[in-house]
Amino acid sequence: MASMSSLPLLYLPLLLLLPQLSHSAPIPQPKNLAHQKPQPWNTYIVHANHLAKPPHFATLGHWYTSMVDSHSPRAAVTVDSSRILYTYDTVMHGFAVQITGDEARRLSGAVGVTGVYEDRLLHLQTTRSPGFLGLDPGFGAWRDTNLGNGVIIGFVDSGIWPESPSFNDHGLGPVRSSWRGKCVGAENFDANLCNNKLVGIKTFDKLVPSPRDVSGHGTHVASTAAGSEVRDTGILMFARGTARGVGPKARIAMYKIVVCTDSDDWKIEIVPQVGAAGLILVDNSSWSPDGTIFSSAFTLPENRAPTVASFSSRGPSPVVPELLKPDVIAPGVNILAAWPGSASLANPRNSSYQLDAGTSIACPQVAGVAALIKEKHGTWTPAMMRSKLMTTAGTLDNTDREIPDSAVVDRVRGGATAATPFATGAGPVRPQLALDPDLVYDASSREYIDFLCALNYTTEQLRRFAPDLATCARELPGGPAGLNYPSFVVVFDVRTLTRTVTKVSEGAEKYKVTVAAPEHVNVTVTQATLEFKEQYEKRS
Question: Which of 63, 101, 305, 539 is the most exposed place for a label (fewest CB within 10 A)?
Answer without folding.
Answer: 305
